[in-house]
Each structure stands twice: as C-alpha cells, then as structure tokens.
Inverse folding.
C-alpha cells in the first residue's frame, strides 16, 4: 500500500507504562543538539532528549498536532517506529494547568532560597524543576487538543 510507506508509529514510554501510541506522518523532538524532525523511512537514529515538547502530526487527523511534555530521555527511530523512552511524559490534554503553575511558583521560590544560601546543588535541582513546570505549562497552552 503506497500510503503505508509514508507512515511511522510513534510510541512514548515511561517507567509507568505506555503514554502515547499513534501512527504519524511527522514527529518533532527536542534533542541535546536542537530540534529533530522524523518522517517515515528515516534512517535509524538514536538521540538523547532534553526537557521539551514532542510534536506528533497524526495521519488520522491532518492539520492537527498532538503535543506531549517530555522530561528528558532518548528517542530511537528504526523500521518506521519512533520510540521515545522518557522519565516522565504527559499529553497536553492530561496536564493540570493549576498544578503546573503551582510547581512553577514553588521552583521559583526554591531558586531564590538556593541563591540566598549559596546552595549550588539545590539551585540546579530547582532550575530543572522550573524547566519541567514551564514545559508542562507551554505544552498545555499550545496543545489543548493533544
């Protein structure tokens, strides 16, 4: 079938199980070296991911992208299957915006406390927590249909 040649399967897995599994024409991930777009028949590749959104253009919903907040991990593309293994991942529709905003505020307070106490380890942890919260907020606001 000609149409099947332009389709890839995208699945996202966390330690809690499968978060996402759909057929797509395009997936865009944020790697340690920048954004990477993957389409069907892409050469095999493995790439480390950073905190950011994964955008998936599904074949069953042209013109619409699902957005998933991912907190690091890695992506492997092989045989028209794009597998993402992440510490955590949430679809835009599943993100509680109130909780994400509260997490952002907590992280900002932790950053200020760590700076005042000159605690570099806590500062780094708080900065990562802030990145995760901002990513979740961005994904929720950008991908409400996700």
């Amino acid at each position: 079938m000609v149409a099947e040649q332009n389709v890839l399967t995208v699945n996202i897995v966390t330690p809690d199980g499968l978060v996402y599994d759909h057929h797509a024409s395009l997936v865009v991930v944020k790697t340690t070296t920048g954004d990477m777009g993957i389409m069907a028949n892409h050469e095999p590749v493995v790439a480390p991911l950073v905190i950011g959104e994964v955008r998936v253009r599904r074949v069953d919903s042209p013109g619409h992208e699902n957005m998933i907040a991912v907190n690091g991990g890695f992506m492997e593309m092989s045989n028209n299957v794009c597998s993402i293994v992440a510490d955590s991942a949430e679809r835009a529709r599943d993100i509680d915006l109130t909780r994400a905003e509260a997490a952002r505020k907590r992280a900002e307070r932790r950053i200020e406390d760590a700076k005042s106490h000159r605690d570099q380890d806590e500062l780094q942890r708080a900065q990562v927590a802030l990145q995760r919260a901002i990513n979740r907020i961005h994904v929720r606001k950008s991908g409400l249909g996700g």
